[in-house]
Amino acid sequence: MTTPGLVDRLAAHRLIGAVPREQLEWLAAHGRLRRLGPGDVLSFSTGPVEGLYVVLSGHLSICVNRGAGPRKVMEWRGGDVTGLLPYSRLTAPPGNVVADEETEVVAVGRGDLPALIHECGELTAVLVHVMLDRARVFTSSDLLDEKLLSLGRLAAGLAHELNNPASAVARSAKTLVSQLEELDAASRAFCAVDLSGDQCAAVNNLRDTTLAGRAQVAYSPIELADREDAIALWLGDRGIDGFDPEPLAESALTTEDLDGLASLIGRQGLAAAVRYLSVAHSVRRLAAEINTASTRIHTLVAAVKGFTYMDQSAVPKLVDVGQGLSDTLTVLKSKARSKAIELRLDLEPELPSVDGFGGELNQVWANLIDNALDAVHQGGRVLVAAVQEGDGILVRVTDNGPGIPEDIRGRIFDPFFTTKRVGEGTGLGLDIARRLVQRHKGDIEVTTGPDGTEFSVRLPATSAPSARSESRPS
Hints:
Helix content: 40-55%
Shape: elongated
Strand content: 15-25%
Largest sheet: 5 strands, mixed
Mean pLDDT: 80
Structural class: alpha+beta
Strand order of the largest sheet: 10-12-13-15-14
Number of helices: 12
Radius of gyration: 35 Å
Low-confidence stretches: 421-427, 467-474
């Protein structure tokens, strides 16, 4: 195509057509027309971007695989501009830029961009705006991808954490139904025995005191087996059989207590009383298991609500950093247990609040702690600590892993850089953590060596003390 014909096409371009014609002539003189067929690659993710591309017609797109298969993150059609833009630090795209149909672009080489900036002021201004818009799109896409990946990790960990207490509730509730029927029968049999008021009161007192003592008793498997044998032998010597001695063995009841009971009520009512005590122990044990498991479920749900700041408007407010760290550790605890990692939280009392977005800060803590858990070996240690430092808060995430290799230390905050296998990381966690910390007017640093790594986050604090009831969702 002749230069005048190319200038006319550039003048009809949606983005740059309004700049002075002499600048379009400069662009036509220094650029070359490239035609791409469907499937042709304009820029490879493995190589440097050759220069600026003005899309005259057709359709280009870029797909990125961050572990869940290729996903289209951006596309360009006739009237758009892509490639290396003025003042951009772009070296290579995050994925291949591919033509989806017959496409024509005007390509201006990387070496001509300094002259473009110097000689084409209006054109440069338009291209800088395009670069800023592109950066916003990629930033939003990156943050969304990392949040989705974090959500997947959170959902997997939460499902694992909820499974045990939920199963315990279902199992105990099912057993409780039959035990309540058994308790009803045992109670009728006990009431049918002609006992005095003092004797009934003694049985009920023994029931209540031994059950209350159970909370302070933790028997080893050997101790529990010995207690079962002793109680079974005691019952057998008196001709009492037909029920499991395990509930009595798990309580604080002793054979001395049973001896006292036998001497008080006599042999006639002993079997009914012991059966009543045993079933009452079973029912209360099942109720206690349901209470413990449901409390655990409530704690996990509260931690997730606190971690995500669900049901709260997206406006800055006072944030309790200590509570956010605690919630984050709760949702990541299953991962630590799966590797037998010691995960500990040390909080300085009365930490001041931070003015900002609690959900975003929790995203920072989740990324740092999750990376630390990945870095340490089986049986390792991760310490999370928060203290007041001057007018701000210092949060440290320390692990005793092998440290960050020296040859990659300068790249760990780069977008898309990751040492994890495909599907395990996007290479966005630390980049997003850095951006979110900077958004809160803080800074993030890393120190590393063969004995471990420590990430330090400093955030400016408000004058108001931390108040968990204000910063955590109810």
